[in-house]
From TrEMBL:
Residues 23-141 form the Thiamine pyrophosphate enzyme TPP-binding domain. Pfam families: TPP_enzyme_C. It comes from the Bacteria. GO terms for molecular function: oxidoreductase activity; thiamine pyrophosphate binding. The keyword Oxidoreductase applies. This is Pyruvate:ferredoxin oxidoreductase, beta subunit.
Length: 233
């Protein structure tokens, strides 16, 4: 069965389905973009985690409302030029940092949380296989998905930017379950990370950034990495 419904209702409809059609052998999958997940639908998603609903919730995170004109979302990164955080005399892109809902749900003790990236398919597939076996609460999968049009790069460079996002530790791959964090191999095995400046170079959404702004973004990514390492000890 496939149901299509408004953005904010994704987790709510999934909850209704498992409440009415109670079948432990059925995996209920909710799939939504970042705006519908971390902004419009966050209340329902958090409630699903609290209730320990047996839902697999997938967030397709391309860091903005891409099909409505590239408005900024909660996952849009610091400094990005969007239609609602335009670059001009009084604005230099999004002034806030990316909202980390995967970490929020881990702290809320969702049954399983994982970050994924199509550029690392073995890691991706293993996490999906694990997700479908979990029946004791909310499963949350966050997939970073580069958008050539809105990020501002040529489509043939999609995998290149996908890998650079991980290699620069801009996007961290990890898992959470049973009060334990595990750093995934593609992130853990990085010995000489790229600078964030190399990842954002060539993306039109960041072309206006000053050296100071890039330093702020780098520090934010470094801080997130430090926190994850401590949580995974």
């Amino acid at each position: 069965m496939w149901l299509n419904f408004k953005l904010a209702f994704c987790a709510k409809v999934a909850h209704f389905y498992i409440s009415v059609y109670i079948d432990p052998d059925v995996n209920v999958l909710a799939y939504a973009g970042d705006g519908a997940t971390v902004d419009i639908g966050l209340q329902a998603l958090s409630a699903a985690a609290e209730r320990r609903d047996n839902i697999i919730y997938v967030c397709n995170d391309n860091e903005g409302y891409m099909n409505t004109g590239f408005q900024k979302s909660g996952t849009t990164p610091f400094g990005a030029n969007t239609s609602t955080t335009p670059v001009g005399k009084k604005s230099s892109g999004k002034p806030n940092f990316k909202k980390d809902v995967a970490m929020m749900l881990a702290i809320q003790n969702a049954a399983y949380v994982a970050t994924l990236f199509p550029a690392y398919m073995n890691d991706f597939i293993n996490k999906v296989k694990k997700a479908v076996t979990i029946k004791n609460g909310l499963v949350y999968l966050q997939i970073l998905t580069p958008c050539p049009t809105r990020w501002g790069f040529s489509p043939e460079k999609s995998i290149q930017y996908a890998r650079m996002a991980v290699q620069s530790r801009y996007f961290l791959l990890y898992e959470y379950s049973n009060f334990e964090f595990t750093i995934s191999a593609p992130t853990k095995d990085i010995k000489d990370p790229l600078s964030v400046s190399k990842f954002i170079a060539g993306q039109k959404r960041f072309k206006h950034l000053t050296e100071d702004a890039v330093t702020i973004l780098q520090q934010f990514c470094d801080n997130k990495w430090d926190v994850l390492q401590k949580l995974a000890q």
